[in-house]
């Protein structure tokens, strides 16, 4: 009997390797399929990684109990990627494999077989209502064989279902008896029900048939026997096409514009194309509006023409409808999009299209780096400085590291694009590890960089209202008069940051976390942005019972209110997590603003990045200090990047742009260099400080967070770790802490943090792998290890 090497879904250090199982002759098993095996006394899921002829195991091998998939769901590259990640981020290979599967294949998905036109009648008794839960435990070996044969003849269909409800609807469709006369009405009805099913038959009706014209392009889920009958009568012709719920179907298709490339663009395209068969990483450092996206598009076109595929990663925030339609215009239906707002069904369908080789280019957020595109010819990481490329919860990964890993695997170039590259990338470019390509000009000849003005909020004369300085106020009103648009950026949602009693100084804090509650006037709530706790806005102080409550720290809701007070005719739209949580709402806001249905767009992070509104001539940053004051080693870098990005939103059309930055730290180098749009100088200053304090790119940092409901246990565990690590590290490695995490208590759990700064320290990494293992069995303490390498 054949022997399969199987990675079992039991994530511990001892079990994170393959185990040998026998493959029963009647089971069809390939590498990359999921199976069920007995492990100890449990039945667990396993991934088939390899086949061998003999085993080193001295005991009696068990047989695979069940095969879950009909086709491999993972490929060799993904299996290797999972191993790479495990080593890099102190995680388990098997846990990483789940990262590479669509949500639909995780959790309690059940498999059902649907009968279409079964010729092997001996199988019929198995099916009730046209479906059978597909679980080979209940089937004899002969039955399994017959079912596979029927699947091959397309008489059965495998349906993955999240719940019985879905399947039941499907069953109704399959079993409904429809009089032939009622078909047009039924078709309408069934088409509407399509959202319930996973796969539907698309019927192409021949022209001239009474049903044809109206329904030709519609998806029809109707009993095959009815259609067969119609086909036999010669009134329709049947052909089978697998169809998908595609998130792009609804978006309007634009024709692609042929752009004449600028000199800089042509040179960049030429240089990168010359390296198509190497795994060179390019750092494309181009100011905002310098036409980087067009460079990605043009290169993708070349790659696809040569028969290869492309992945383009963008931060969640800049995967805008604008970006999608730009690529769609060139590549039509051969692109897939991948982001967190897709439904599970949409994601599953995009994944199947990719697997079925129906996609040439995937445009997506960080998790798109895992898509099973074969034969990659180019990987792009746009806005490479964005933090969102790193997933910091377990299983951790950094899409930028993976992009390079895959580039190496496929021997294809990787492009990191940014106006403000990470210090790490830029330092690598200086050492010629990456190749630097610079774009210094905006494409639009009138599109000069905007003028940036800094307003010192410490000077009382500058303050007009609580939120707007005199200069900003004047500039906003001027834009309104001239019918130009404005974007206001404030990185804080809600109405106010906290509520305080003016009589006794009591502040309203979250009962579960060490933070104040945010005031949301719009939904009449105080809410905690860390644990989600919500309560009604109190009328009086619970401490002194006075009613003199006052809010501090302005949020985006308050900004809208103050604009109304300035001039009630000015219309505003707000874009933050509160207004964009519903599906489609983000797109709607962008489109409204694009069509000038509002004069001012007020928002958090998401207005800062990626958007392109030609009529915006003014951008106001209401409080640049919010990100500067974050207790993180790269707060200056984040602030500089953010301000540069925001500034890039202004003056993208014909009229020159203006940016006003309000701050209490006008002399801070991050703010000064952002004002001058001088990346070069910022880079030097920040590098100097990083070197002084021993941070990236001079030292890598590993943060270890120890969390427990019992504070003393968290602290004690952290101290033990510190001791263990100091005994098992090399001399260069420094250990800082443990110290309370900057918000010590979140959701009634306490966190202490250690930081390790290292250059190269294999011994320390081994120790960390062991620590993970030891603490896994302890359910009172959680340990999160995060390895920051870029
Ligand atoms: P970046 O990504 O560098 O910020 P974009 O790619 O968004 O810049 O380009 C800015 C604008 O210039 C976009 O509206 C884009 O369509 C346009 N553009 C890019 N290349 C050209 C070109 N060669 N000719 C004309 N317009 C261009
Ligand atoms: Zn809370």
UniProtKB/TrEMBL annotation:
Binds 2 zinc ions per subunit. Pfam families: DEAD, Helicase_C, PriA_3primeBD, PriA_C, Zn_ribbon_PriA. Its cofactor is Zn(2+). Keywords: ATP-binding, DNA replication, DNA-binding, Helicase, Hydrolase, Isomerase, Metal-binding, Nucleotide-binding, Primosome, Zinc. It catalyses: ATP + H2O = ADP + phosphate + H(+); Couples ATP hydrolysis with the unwinding of duplex DNA by translocating in the 3'-5' direction. One of its GO terms (cellular component) is primosome complex. The keyword Nucleotide-binding applies. GO terms for molecular function: 3'-5' DNA helicase activity; ATP binding; DNA binding; hydrolase activity; zinc ion binding. Gene3D superfamilies: P-loop containing nucleotide triphosphate hydrolases (3.40.50.300), PriA, 3(prime) DNA-binding domain (3.40.1440.60). CDD domains: DEXHc_priA, SF2_C_priA. Zn(2+) 1 binds at residues 501, 504, 541, 544. One of its GO terms (biological process) is DNA replication initiation. InterPro entries: DEAD/DEAH_box_helicase_dom, Helicase_ATP-bd, Helicase_C-like, P-loop_NTPase, PriA, PriA_3primeBD, PriA_3primeBD_sf, PriA_C. Component of the replication restart primosome. Belongs to the helicase family. PriA subfamily. This is Replication restart protein PriA. It comes from Xylocopilactobacillus apicola. The gene is priA.
